């Protein structure tokens, strides 16, 4: 029997301008050479193992950090594991990796998946977890139409399965029918009360859930509530939220927040929001999110130490 093919790659291309990426520069200003080393090590782990993502959760975080330390940072001035975790958080905050998937315990990016797609064109079969796949059919066709990934993507679509590039939809999520039933129940309960009876953050979270299939993170809800208390009309906030739900937005929280900062209601489409300026200071809700992640990591390490 032939040995099954390893899903990862034996090498990957690195753009000549990779280290001068504006997003990476933002992390370099804070962590210096560590940002470069950790970034490159994450790419090596990503391509070497799964090929297009890294599992980075409570069970795997220690192994990933230990691999980075032992592979590239061993020596007299070796940084602490906590420092490496902080650098990874910052790389995600700079949008070098997907913010949404990071919250779910995965490290990946659209750019990494494009590299994997182009590097596997000669493979006959490639197993893809579509809940983690960020590339659309048109984006894949623009790179090449002879990929097994594209063929499986189209086949899944033709069979009525949604190989969505929206990471919200996962194979272990409730079925669409169950989600639909849940939303009907929630809607009927909400209709028993008037809109004024429901606090705005609760209404916002419910609409967000209906649009994206998950609740927004609490830091984002607090940031939106601060905009409302600062004078932003509720109708404007909900208008931006619902309009965003009709678009393909991989990371709706930062998109909605940035749009609201300069948005005034008018006829037509929402203004196009470009990628984050890597040189801009982090918003308060982003700082809160990073603090929340670090607090959870410290708590988990404390629990592990007691066992």
Summarize this entry quickly.
The protein is an all-alpha fold. It is 55% helix and 1% strand.
Describe it.
This protein is mainly alpha-helical and 307 residues long. The protein has helices spanning 22-31, 33-48, 61-72, 81-93, 99-103, 110-119, 137-143, 148-158, 176-191, 200-212, 218-229, 234-245, 252-261, 284-306, and strands at 54-55, 106-107. A two-stranded antiparallel sheet has the order 1-2. Helix 4 runs antiparallel to helix 14 (284-306) and helix 10 packs parallel to helix 12 (234-245).
Beta-strand segment tally:
2
Largest sheet: 2 strands, antiparallel
Helix content: 55-70%
> Segments where pLDDT lies below 50 for 5+ residues?
165-180, 185-195, 267-276
Which shape, going by the Cα principal axes? globular
Question: Order of strands side by side in the largest beta sheet?
Answer: 1-2
Overall structural class, as computed from helix and strand content, comes to mainly alpha
How far from one another are the termini?
A: 43 Å
Number of helical segments? 14
Radius of gyration: 21 Å
**Could you tell me the strand content as a percent range?**
under 5%
Oligomer category: single chain
Summarize the helices and strands and which ones pair or pack.
Blueprint: H1 22-31, H2 33-48, E1 54-55, H3 61-72, H4 81-93, H5 99-103, E2 106-107, H6 110-119, H7 137-143, H8 148-158, H9 176-191, H10 200-212, H11 218-229, H12 234-245, H13 252-261, H14 284-306
Antiparallel strand pairs: 1-2
Helix pairs in contact: 1-2, 2-3, 2-4, 4-14, 10-11, 10-12, 11-13, 11-14, 12-13
């Amino acid at each position: 029997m032939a040995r099954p093919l390893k899903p990862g790659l034996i090498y990957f291309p690195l753009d000549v301008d990779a280290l001068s990426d504006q997003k990476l520069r933002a992390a370099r200003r804070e962590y210096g050479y560590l940002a470069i080393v950790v970034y490159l090590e994450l790419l090596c782990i990503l391509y070497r193992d799964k090929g297009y993502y890294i599992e980075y959760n409570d069970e795997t975080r220690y192994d990933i950090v230990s691999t980075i330390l032992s592979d590239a940072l061993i020596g007299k001035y070796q940084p602490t594991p906590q420092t490496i975790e902080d650098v990874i958080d910052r790389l995600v905050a700079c949008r070098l990796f997907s913010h949404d998937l990071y919250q779910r315990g995965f490290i990946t990016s659209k750019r990494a998946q494009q590299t994997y797609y182009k590097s596997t064109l000669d493979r006959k079969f490639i197993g893809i977890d579509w809940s983690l796949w960020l590339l659309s059919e048109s984006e894949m066709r623009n790179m090449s139409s002879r990929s097994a990934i594209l063929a499986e993507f189209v086949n899944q679509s033709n069979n009525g399965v949604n190989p969505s590039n929206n990471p919200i939809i996962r194979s272990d999520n409730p079925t669409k029918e169950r989600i639909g039933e849940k939303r009907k129940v929630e809607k009927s309960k909400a209709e028993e009360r008037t809109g004024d009876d429901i606090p705005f953050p609760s209404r916002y979270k419910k609409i967000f859930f209906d649009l994206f299939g998950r609740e927004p993170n609490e830091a984002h809800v607090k940031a939106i509530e601060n905009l409302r208390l600062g004078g932003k009309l509720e109708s404007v906030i909900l208008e931006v939220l619902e309009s965003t739900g009709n678009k393909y937005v991989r990371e709706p929280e930062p998109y909605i927040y940035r749009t609201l900062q300069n948005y005034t209601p008018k006829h037509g489409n929402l203004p196009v929001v470009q990628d984050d300026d890597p040189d801009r200071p982090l918003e308060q809700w982003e700082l809160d999110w990073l603090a929340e992640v670090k607090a959870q990591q410290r708590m988990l390490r404390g629990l592990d130490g007691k066992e």
